[in-house]
Amino acid sequence: MELSIFSALWLGIMTAISPCPLATNIASISFISRKAGNKAHVLTSGLLYTLGRTLVYILLGAGIAAGLLANAEISRFLQKHMNEILGPVMILLGMLLLNWLGKNISFSFKTDHIQEKAAKSGIFLALPIGALFALSFCPVSAGLFFGGLVPLAIKENSIIIFPLIYGVGTALPVILFAFLLAFATKSVSKIFTKLTQIEIWVRKITGGLFILVGIYYTLVHIYGLG
Amino acid sequence: MIVNKDGLKSIATYLLLIFIFVSIGFMLGKNSVNRQDSQTINKNIDFVAVYYMHSTFRCETCNTIETMTRNLLDRQYSSFLEDGSIQWQDIDFMKDIDLSKQFDVAASCVVVADIQNGEVIDFQRLNEVWTLMKDPEAFDQHISDAIDIYLSKEVRK
Q1: Does B19 touch chain A (CB under 8 A)?
Q2: pLDDT in tens, chain A (226 residues)
Q3: Which of B15, B59, B92, B99 to mutate to test the interface with A (most CBs of A within 10 A)?
Q4: Alpha helical stretches, state H, chain B
Q5: Which of A60, A138, A156, B11 could cross-link A20 (Cys pair, CB 3.0–4.6 Å)?
């Protein structure tokens, strides 16, 4: 059992460090570490991101074990449709982070209100972002989760603990790099004593990254380019 | 004409929103027609089919698994490939829905099937290729074991 738990963690880490979720991982690292001056913010953001990912894996694992979801069907559905949806959603998130929605355009509905809300509750965005990225299975994460983790969890009769450990494993490298980046940003800003300005730039870079990754996902998964 | 910073932001925002709406429209249109019929199998002969089932989006790791499997076949089973006792096919399981349902494929993997008179008599779905790929010897052994079971039946005929 202990060895299997370690396997679940290792499968999660393998998922995170494989090349295929690299684009979303870079976006996550940038998002979690964007408020470098606020340790509590980076920590809470990282924990919420992990929670978002883990919840998705637990729900999927439990649903499959309970027979509510068919392993192969749900895997094919998520691999096909979530990656298609992810691109446009990431572009919108990037525009939200850059304050481009509401300020520069006018809609009949109050986008400035959405923008304000997003800015205030920015930290809580980490949870849905974690969930969204977890649901967007790439071939490696689908192979390791549906082909490796789920059968292992069912065999060990531990359909909550194993997906939980796997989820933590997928988030670990991202959080580690986010902390390193936040620490490095803070150290650099100390030298230049311009933390607020650097944070504004980090936020802009994060928004830009989300848009670029979103365009990449749209071109690859919707238009089949690349 | 001089466009200020806010003007540029507005243009970029509108362009991105147009891109999103067009892409969503394209996605909906594509999904309503995108389906591929099952690969046709020669109904007159019996053979062992080795399928590499992959998703439409090909990642580097998936390509490595395909190459490792194909190299194993070329190295150890070249005569069987030549006489048709073993047949290799790569299939996009997101498009060939019938075959992916038949083999219950959840993710990219290797499937070894025993085909007799065009019918799949038995098959093994090898999901473990993902975890075994770091150990090429174990990877080759795992696939060979699956092939050999069905191949011995072919040879005995």
Answers
A1: yes
A2: 666 888 899 999 988 888 778 888 888 888 888 877 777 888 888 999 999 999 999 999 989 988 888 888 899 889 888 889 999 999 999 998 888 886 555 544 455 555 555 555 577 889 999 999 999 998 889 989 998 899 888 888 888 999 999 999 999 988 888 888 888 877 777 666 666 777 778 888 989 999 999 999 999 999 988 6
A3: B59
A4: 5-33, 60-76, 78-83, 97-102, 129-132, 136-156
A5: A138
State the amino acid at position B83 in one-letter form: D
| pLDDT for residue A116 | 57
Task: Judge whether B112 and B44 are in contact, CB under 8 Å.
Answer: no
Instruction: Provide the pairing of β-strand B119-126 with B86-92.
Output: unpaired
Residues for chain B: how many in total?
A: 157
Task: Give ∠ CA A11-A23-A78 in degrees, rounded to 5.
Answer: 60
Interface contact flag, B62 A11, Cβ < 8 Å: no
CB atoms within 10 A of CB A147: 26
C-beta neighbour count of A17 within 10 angstroms: 16
Token output for A144: 């390791």
| Residues of chain A contacting residue B128, judged by C-beta atoms under 8 Å apart | 147-148
A79-94 tens-digit pLDDT: 888 889 999 999 999 9
Short-list A112, A102, A86, A110, CA closest to A23:
A86
**Taking CB atoms and an 8 Å limit, are B23 and A223 in contact across chains?**
yes
Q: How far apart are CA A90 and CA A210, in angstroms?
A: 5
Q: Which of A25, A83, A95 to mutate to test the interface with B (most CBs of B within 10 A)?
A: A95
The tokens of A27 are what?
Answer: 């976006």
Q: What is the nearest CA distance from B11 to chain A, expressed in angstroms? A: 9
Query: How many CB pairs lie under 8 A apart between chains A and B?
Result: 118
